Amino acid sequence: MNHQQLIIPSNQATKKQGGNHLTVVPNSSQTQQISSSPTEASSVKRRFAFKVAPDLISSFRYAFKGVHYAFTTQRNFRIHTLIGTIALTLGIFLQVSAVKMAVIGVTVAFVLVLELINTALESVVDLTVKQTYHDLAKIAKDCAAGAVLIGALAALFVAGVILLPPLLTLIFNS
Ligand SMILES: Nc1ncnc2c1ncn2[C@@H]1O[C@H](COP(=O)(O)OP(=O)(O)OP(=O)(O)O)[C@@H](O)[C@H]1O
User: Taking all residues of the chain, what is their mean pLDDT, rounded to a whole number?
Assistant: First the structure.
């Protein structure tokens, strides 16, 4: 494991510094200590967390809050949810096979997952650079948006292959 740099909240830092965060570059012995075992590394990670979900129900609750946040704040997430719902409804209406329905379902989920990751990454970037311009912030956001675009194009392709032929047959035979 390669730990180049750790950023920990200032209230957990051993040395005081200005601002909200203290950047700590561990020396070789600290790096060794962090990487010595997965359990140890995980306990270090948890120590840096502001809050840890106490149980499984809480974990699910936070996860649903994330989905709810994306749905209420991200226009693209709502658009993809709507298109996904239409695709699944069309699949049922056109009576496509179970395997094809599964492919549509996974594809819809894939796009929504990419949207959620994009939203999470945007928040982390904004948290890091606030309202200042940074080339790396631009790259991170553009690449995350690019990932969603590629996912959406793949979904369009899947819909074209699975849903379009039976839809055209239905239209031209009626
Ligand atoms: N701090 C920043 N520094 C440099 N460029 C930024 C910064 N914040 C945003 N940008 C640029 O503005 C674009 C739009 O930013 P935004 O935060 O709306 O992301 P987005 O991925 O386009 O949002 P959404 O997915 O909600 O449409 C980014 O893709 C990036 O090119």
Answer: 83
Topology adopted by domain 56-173 = Helix Hairpins (1.10.287)
Whether the CB-CB separation of 107 and 161 falls below 8 Å is answered with no
Give CATH 1.10.287.3610 domain extents, the chain: 56-173
Q: Which atom belonging to ligand 1 lies closest to the Cα atom of 135?
A: 4
Per residue in 128-143, pLDDT tens?
Answer: 999 999 999 999 999 9
- 115 catalytically annotated: yes
Looking at residue 11, the DSSP 8-state letter turns out to be G
For residue 21, what is the enclosing H or E element? Answer: strand 21-24
Give yes or no for residue 115 having a pLDDT over 70. yes
Measure 138 CA to ligand 1 centroid, in angstroms. 6
